[in-house]
Amino acid sequence: MPTGDKIQSVEEYVGAFPEEVQASLERIRQTISQAIPAAEEVISYQIPAFKLHGMVIYYSAYKSHYSISTPPPFTAFETFKEELAPYEVSKSAVKFPMDKPLPLELIGKIAKFKAQENAEAAQKKKKK
After folding, report:
1. Residue 95: exposed, middle, or buried by beta-carbon count in 10 A (0-12, 13-18, 19+)?
2. pLDDT digits (tens, 9 = 90+) for 25-63
3. Domains in the chain with CATH codes
């Protein structure tokens, strides 16, 4: 797990974890990257994130779970409420237990949804 030092890259963040966790983080990373190929990978709040017309989705690992989170508006998790029912969900984040398979398809759908939401918001701003 990354220490208190400032994380400079996604590779540095992922590399700070044990191999098994690194592999899962890479699967999450690839899933999001494939879902929103135009997005830029960044480090934000000391964790990996994808940015397209603003922040789209963050992902991270902790002692016993992986997490994805989105910035406001918090409509993505409400939209996928039924599919997220087996997981611990807050307004802005979802926890996926490390001892269960990652729902990669669902993570991809959430990333796509949020990217589309960002694109629509960017279009509205342009029209003003």
Report:
1. middle
2. 999 999 999 999 999 999 999 999 999 999 999 999 999
3. 10-118 (3.90.1150.200)
